Amino acid sequence: MRFVIVTGMSGSGKSTAMKMLEDAGFYCADNMPVPLIEKFMELLAMPDTGIQKVALGLDVRADQSFEDINQTVARLRQTYAFEILFLESADKVLLKRYKETRRLHPLSIDGDLMSGIKRERALLASIKSAADYVIETSNLLTRELKSELDKIFVSNRQYNSLMVNVMSFGFKYGIPQDADLVFDVRFLPNPFYIDELKKKTGLDKEVQDYVMGFPEAHAFLEKLTDMISFLIPNYVNEGKYQLVVAIGCTGGQHRSVTLAGELYRSLKDKGDYGLTLRHREIK
């Protein structure tokens, strides 16, 4: 039997993950009281239950101690084999999600969202460090989260808890605040000054052909792919969960979009890590 504990920051997508696991054939139980967890696992361990895959959702609640959950999980690992999936998101993303949904954080005091997020992050530090998989959902679409879960729990692929986010942007609108690595491709000729390409973007083949028609573009892509491929396993070893690679040009419409797309295709399916592509200035 495969048993998975699903936990993480409130607002990071745990409920969505549980629904996806249910669709993948898991028997799902959510928000179970701490005293019942051990009894639940005892029952599942009995022969002839007919249940092969189970996902148990654990949340921080104001009416129960998460320290009890940490102790229970540590005790259970001495007897049972199970995996822990931890969903993570940046503070500013969690704040935005809570404000959009107008929900209260379970640990917020007097409606102070940030205090609740900080308290929760401190409580979850122990179980996060023990997690088998950490998925950073700050920049993930729902379908991308499903893809990552499918890799782990459907395809059973080896998975490193690193999400690589490739992003294009325009320097005239500012460098992305969450970027880890920033690269400037304004050294390439600008399609903006070609009348037939001006109103197109790097998503159009004509612009892609123009930008990649220069040897410098191919040399840049080759060197950048080699460097990112070198860095990824080292970041994994250091326990990094998210890497944002930002590629910028003047307006974020042509050159950066083309090179970001090419880098994404170069890295795709080359490693056991998550990979997403964003074009910040293209709506």
Could you list some keywords that capture this structure?
single chain; 283 residues; alpha/beta; Rossmann fold; 2 domains; four-stranded parallel β-sheet; 9 strands; 41% helix
In short:
The chain is of the alpha/beta class and 283 residues long. The protein has helices at residues 14-23, 34-45, 66-76, 91-101, 113-129, 142-153, 205-211, 215-237, 255-267, and strands at residues 2-8, 27-30, 53-57, 83-88, 133-136, 163-170, 181-184, 242-249, 274-279.
Total strand segments = 9
Secondary-structure element string: EHEHEHEHHEHEEHHEHE
What's the story with the biggest beta sheet? 5 strands, parallel
CATH-derived topology of the largest domain: Rossmann fold
CATH class assignment of the largest domain:
Alpha Beta
Per CATH, the superfamily of the largest domain is P-loop containing nucleotide triphosphate hydrolases
For the termini, the CA-CA separation is: 45 Å
- Radius of gyration, rounded? 22 Å
The neighbouring-strand order within the major sheet is 2-3-1-4-5
Gross geometry: elongated
Task: Determine the oligomeric state from the structure.
Answer: single chain
Mean pLDDT: 89
Count, helices: 9
Helix content: 40-55%
Q: What proportion of the residues form beta strands (DSSP E)?
A: 15-25%
CATH architecture of the largest domain: 3-Layer(aba) Sandwich
Number of domains: 2
Query: Which parts are unreliable, with pLDDT below 50 for 5 consecutive residues or more?
Result: none
Q: Structural class of the secondary structure composition?
A: alpha/beta
